[in-house]
Write a structure and sequence with these properties.
Blueprint: H1 10-31, H2 35-47, H3 50-57, H4 62-65, H5 69-86, H6 94-109, H7 114-127, H8 136-144, E1 152-156, E2 173-178, H9 181-190, E3 198-203, H10 211-221
Parallel strand pairs: 1-2, 2-3
């Protein structure tokens, strides 16, 4: 008998396994997630859909099950769960992130060559959970091939994404808001490198109502 998974009876787990593995592969390809993490999220989401579980247990054809709205909702919920787990801003090896951030800050403070700073910046982007899952620089290139760059940007929950912005091409005022202190400290250290553009890091919890007022005070000081 198949092993039960996340509240699903063993027979139901076996019937849906083929479809689950397809979705797991798609999730891992998109988000570079661990297969076990994606699988657990998907089985958990399926088990929370009683109607879907009933359809699986009733032996409905797999293609019919995967057409159900409840199945599509479960897949969407699993993808969202995996995405937000990956959006946790620190990797298990925080010392590596700290070392990369410290090197970038040191190079900027010493006025090092642009190429050296760029290498350090890219290394940090590739390692940090807020930016490693997709090519942020390619995103900005594609975006600005379609629209003109804005005079100002407000990035809420920014992580280290501002490091990928092409400041050398656009004198944009970029306000970066995040509650994660290490990320904001890194952006503060990087900010002098982007002049005459403006990178304005602001450490605030968006659940608090005082962050917008703090931004207005910060803006007046600039």
């Amino acid at each position: 008998m198949a092993e039960p998974r996340a509240g699903l009876p063993g027979d139901a787990s076996a019937r849906i396994a083929e479809a689950v593995e397809r979705e797991v592969a798609a999730i891992c390809a998109r988000y570079r997630a661990d297969p076990a993490q994606a699988r657990a999220a998907l089985y958990g989401a399926i088990s929370r859909q009683p109607g879907l579980v009933a359809a699986i247990e009733a032996g409905h054809a797999l293609e019919d099950v995967t057409r159900l709205r409840a199945y599509k909702d479960a897949v969407k919920a699993a993808r969202k769960a995996v995405y937000y787990q990956l959006r946790q801003y620190r990797r298990a090896d925080e010392s590596e992130i700290a070392a990369l951030a410290a090197r970038l800050a040191d190079l900027v403070a010493r006025g090092a060559a642009h190429d050296d700073i760029d290498v350090a910046r890219r290394a940090l982007l590739a390692a940090h959970a807020s930016t490693r899952e997709r090519d942020q620089e390619a995103f900005f290139r594609a975006l600005f091939s379609l629209v003109d760059p804005p005079a100002s940007i407000l990035d809420l929950g920014c992580g280290l994404q501002p490091l990928a912005f092409p400041f050398e091409k656009h004198t944009t005022r970029y306000v970066a808001v995040d509650r994660d202190a290490p990320a904001i400290h890194t952006l503060e250290a990087f900010a002098p490198h982007v002049l005459p553009a403006r990178l304005i890091p602001l450490q605030r919890d968006l659940a608090s109502l005082d962050w917008a007022g703090a931004y207005r005070l910060r803006r007046r000081a600039l």
